[in-house]
Write a structure and sequence with these properties.
One of its GO terms (cellular component) is cytoplasm. The protein has 18 helices and three strands. By secondary structure, it is an all-alpha fold. Bound molecules: acetyl coenzyme *A. Acetyl coenzyme *A binds next to loops.
Length: 402
Amino acid sequence: GYDISKLMAQTGDTTFDIGFANTAVCKSAITYIDGDAGVLQYRGYPIEQLAEKSTFLETSYLVLYGELPTKEQLEDFTEKVANHMVIDERIREMFRIFPRRSHPMPVLSAGVTALGLFSQDTIGFDDDRIDAATHRLMAKVPTIAAYSYKNSIGMPTLYPDYSLSYVENFLRMSFGTVSQPYELDDEVVKAMEVLLILHADHEQNCSTSTVRLVGSAQTNLYQSVSSGVNALYGPLHGGANQAVLEMLDDIADRGISVKDYVNKVKDKSSNERLMGFGHRVYKNYDPRAAIIKKHADAILRNRAGGNDRLLDIALELEEAALSDPYFVERKLYPNVDFYTGLIYRAMGFPTDMFTVLFAIGRLPGWIAQWREMIKDPANKIGRPRQIYIGHTERDYVAMDAR
Ligand code: ACO
């Protein structure tokens, strides 16, 4: 309702760019995206190769340090992370005070904030401290995440098991109980490795930009990452995977035909969208969705707790959308969230935990971006401008005259 050109004239050289849709805020050597071609690379390595051949810890090292680790470097990194998986007993006790059924995302954020308080010896900007804080976060965030889940279901927490891999240990802490050991399934472990790798970084998305903006004030790594967790919590960002599953459940429960559903989302007056479709940057198939789709089939078919019916609906929706001129003309393809929720549910996670799993995956990206920014001599505090649309100057009015 206001005249943009008039407002622009007031601001001189300031660029008016709501949502930073057209603004690059930094130079970065971490992640490359070509949205038209559907390409995603970490440090130059295609996501397809990393998903097939790497592990989450190895990819984290790559994202953090810029190169694939040698055998010794990976062993050293793995050991440093493993050594820090236990959290201080007082932080563990803290989980008992949150209400039962608290959403695990704010609990995760509180846990990361508390971790900063308990890690004062690693707070600072010299390389050793930054590395120590990096190891602690990589080690302890999955522990805090598993505890946030246990808290949400009112179950006691388990201590980490050093004999297991990073992903195995997280699955065990989430699903194991004191009296019943968790039986690891190779296919589930591999799928979780892949899902975490696919989420490891995605350049200047909302939560990563938040980590950079908070860190640009020279706020320490823990508090910057905790802010990233809060940004990810929002349904327009990390929460979309949950919305896809709710949509599939709704279609299944109400017995709506896929054709009718697609017609409904095309009708703007319905105000509904095909969740898990479309992306600000990708105008082609999201390369992460293509990889996840393959794993969804392996995990969901012929498995207790799997859900073939919802997968069938998802596949039918995709087929119907991709052959429909509405989606073709607007270049709307499945994004990363379209198939992830189906796999998470088949693994046994409730919808509330989906965004927490995203956070564990995105952690190396947040840390790497903070490290890159802190060491960049060109770094400045983030401080956007605005276009003022309020009152012009006026005199104070006494209380009895208002
Ligand atoms: N279903 C139906 N129509 C859609 C969809 C969709 N999922 N996505 C976009 N459109 C239509 C819009 O109505 C618009 O049509 P119009 O040109 O006739 O007005 C056109 O496609 C362009 O859409 P915009 O909203 O302008 O695109 P934008 O880049 O701003 O939004 C977004 C991208 C938010 C991802 C959008 O596609 C969407 O809402 N998708 C569904 C939610 C979702 O899956 N989010 C997860 C994103 S991935 C992530 O964050 C991890």
